[in-house]
Amino acid sequence: MERGHWEGFCGCLDAETLLRIAENGVGQLLAGGPATGALLAGLCREHAVPGEMVVTLRARLQRLAESGRAAVSPELRSDPRAMVEESLRHKRVVDEYRASLKSTLKAVPELARFTAALERALRAESGGGSMSARLLVGAALEEVSITGTKAWATRRSAYGHAEDVGFVRKKGGWYIRPLAKRPGAGRG
């Protein structure tokens, strides 16, 4: 992370975490307008994502924006039934977009490489990315416990902040799950 070696870092993350980060990055690029949408299309081509999936994703995002505007239109405020119906329609549009996004990302042959490329593109475009460049820098792991193919630890940042971090063992290696919550820990 300190050197900006996003492939190396993303290669250490579990698939669920990669999907969440990639979903966020794709959403940021799609929402950024035509220039960043074209950037995303190029990244998808480079990483063997079928072009029709990107076209569908863009169309569903456009529909999502239109549906969002319709759901909050002033005309609906006076008709609770119409407001509920529009809200339900909007939820279906959101679900369609999310399903399209997930299927697009599942079509990526090497999700870690694609997520790293997204991170670099976002940082080049906006100066920031989908993940903190300081997430694990200077952190210490405490209270490590391993049970079979899962492990948990407390990550203590250089500033003393503590939070759970999970690990999962797959294909002979351990992968980081920085967003995981320890079993039995409250979600606050």
Features:
alpha+beta, 188 residues, globular, 4-stranded antiparallel beta sheet, 53% helix
Task: Please provide a written account of the structure.
The protein has 2 domains: 6-126, no CATH class; 140-177, no CATH class. It contains 6 helices and 4 strands. The chain has helices spanning 6-10, 15-31, 34-46, 51-71, 80-106, 111-126; strands spanning 140-147, 150-156, 162-170, 173-177. The protein has a 4-stranded antiparallel sheet, with no helix packed on it. Helix 2 packs antiparallel against helix 3, helix 2 packs across helix 5 (80-106) and helix 2 (15-31) runs parallel beside helix 6. It is globular. 24% of the residues are buried.
Q: What is the compact description of this entry?
A:
The chain is α+β, with helices and mostly antiparallel strands and 188 residues long. It has two domains: 6-126, no CATH class; 140-177, no CATH class.
On the 0 to 100 scale, the average pLDDT is 87
Helix percentage? 40-55%
The radius of gyration computed from the alpha-carbon positions, rounded to a whole number of angstroms, is 19 Å
How much of the residues is beta strand, in percent?
15-25%
Distance between the termini: 29 Å
Strand order of the largest sheet: 1-2-3-4
Low-confidence parts: none
Number of domains: 2
Judged by helices, strands and strand pairing, the structural class is alpha+beta
Shape label: globular
Number of beta-strand segments: 4
The helix/strand order is HHHHHHEEEE
Secondary structure: elements and pairs:
Layout: H1 6-10, H2 15-31, H3 34-46, H4 51-71, H5 80-106, H6 111-126, E1 140-147, E2 150-156, E3 162-170, E4 173-177
Antiparallel strand pairs: 1-2, 2-3, 3-4
